[in-house]
Amino acid sequence: MGLGSEAGKNKRHRDRETGTLGKLVSLLDFVALADGPMRFTDILSLSDQPRGTLHRQLSHLVEEGLLEVDRDGRYRIGLRLLTLASRSWARNEFRAIAEPHLHRLQEVTGETVHLGVLRGAEVIYLDKVEGQQSVRMYSQVGNASPAYCTGVGKAALSVLDDAELTERISGLEYRPYTEHTLRSPSELLSDISQIRARGYAFDLEEHENGICCVAAPIRSDDGHMLAGVSVTGPAYRVTQQRLQAWAPRVVVAADSIMMDMRNRMGPKR
Amino acid sequence: MGLGSEAGKNKRHRDRETGTLGKLVSLLDFVALADGPMRFTDILSLSDQPRGTLHRQLSHLVEEGLLEVDRDGRYRIGLRLLTLASRSWARNEFRAIAEPHLHRLQEVTGETVHLGVLRGAEVIYLDKVEGQQSVRMYSQVGNASPAYCTGVGKAALSVLDDAELTERISGLEYRPYTEHTLRSPSELLSDISQIRARGYAFDLEEHENGICCVAAPIRSDDGHMLAGVSVTGPAYRVTQQRLQAWAPRVVVAADSIMMDMRNRMGPKR
DNA sequence: AAATTACGTTCCGAATAATGGAACTTTTCA
DNA sequence: TGAAAAGTTCCATTATTCGGAACGTAATTT
């Protein structure tokens, strides 16, 4: 499945998925990614399925509450997905362990704090604690962003060994979100070697113009779970000096989360 | 599928769902509802599936990112669900239209504001705007609660005609969450007739001890989408007088949301 | 208003995927 | 180390999905 397809609005839905579930989830994804609710024909024209097949697939998804269809025949994502996701989010151990530390970090800095985990070459934000006077950012819980242009992502990548790092960041499309976005593996590798040296990462308007952050890595004992914490704010308020000053705090928060994980989830993980 | 099964911890997973998708989603739901991550054998013992079948089903769910399995063989909900849900939440028209009104209401009252939609006899919370000094409540976006014991739920029910109302609230289990929870259809109907008369609903510690709210209904022009807005807070701070005083504001917010829907989504809906 | 077209739904033989018992491998524990 | 439990793979059987075509219905045109 081709991810990172925020550009590919008119992407056709013809992933050749294996298995019944794969096809249906891919269809679900397709409807979820669309700009708005789609009518049957809209989906059909972007799909390689015959009418009958598509109709039955959509019906099944609706039957399970994964999709909803209004009286105008427009399909959109169903609320069951939201319920399912929220329940699992609330019970997520890692998030729960990290939460108090995120709040503490938020209070100390006054800016927005993020918790994200690395999945492949993407960061998925697991939690977010906003400051009072927070500027609206294009970020939210559950949002997936490329690792190479986010503080949390680069921090998490930095703890990988060279072999796996190279594997993960090769074959990516280095989309220039801003003029500061890193544009190649070599630029990323060079940044990461700095991150390794100092123990924390910066994002200086690399993902979104006017937004900066400082982030520190978190990893489970077995090294199989990679994550990061960050403090983020608007560039006019969050100068590089302030980021620098916060860095030790962010690292302490990350380390505390790791300690708590060790204690609460058993050591050999 | 029996919802509201917070009591049914040891519920077996043997819904006889129809179709491949139904079985898999039911399994997904089962794992999501569990108290914590489950190992293969745990699921097997609570399932009526043969080992081979269950193993393959779980593998398929993992393959699609709907479940994740750690090195100890423990299954939990995958992050893909969170990503999918968050994306659709962000793009939800209704939520987006309501958002500014929710914030305004929050600022006026200083307390937490909820937006919820009615699905059957349950309310699913679509959005929540917290006050600064907010007490942690058992409520969150995506959470599903029985309509009969929540302000939003009762408000939404109140705009139904008697026939559909009776149909929806019959056959429910009236679980007494607190000593103030309504315990029967007749109690609910009597409350609802009052709500109809005054145009807004109260929840006086009916769902959670120490939590009160006032709520007003929202419905689309065709009456097929029922929802509600509420202002919620701790009983020691939120007296019945204050609720009463806020009621007109809540009703105005609800009506404004309806107006905006009419304008933004076309009238005949 | 009648005819036409587009849209959505249902049907059923053929093709495909899921089932589940058993054999097999790996891990755990005494 | 041996034995039991846990987890995985295999494959003939069974059930489900596929998809073309026929059918009904609403929107549009003449």
UniProtKB/TrEMBL annotation, chains A, B:
The keyword DNA-binding applies. Residues 80-263 form the IclR-ED domain. Residues 18-79 form the HTH iclR-type domain. Pfam families: HTH_IclR (PF09339), IclR_C (PF01614). Keywords: DNA-binding, Transcription, Transcription regulation. InterPro entries: ArsR-like_HTH, GAF-like_dom_sf, HTH_MetabolicPath_Reg, Tscrpt_reg_IclR_C, Tscrpt_reg_IclR_N, WH-like_DNA-bd_sf, WH_DNA-bd_sf. GO terms for molecular function: DNA binding. The keyword DNA-binding applies. SUPFAM superfamilies: GAF domain-like (SSF55781), Winged helix' DNA-binding domain (SSF46785). PANTHER family: HELIX-TURN-HELIX TRANSCRIPTIONAL REGULATOR, ICLR FAMILY, HTH-TYPE TRANSCRIPTIONAL REGULATOR RV1719. This is DNA-binding IclR family transcriptional regulator. It comes from Rhizobium miluonense.
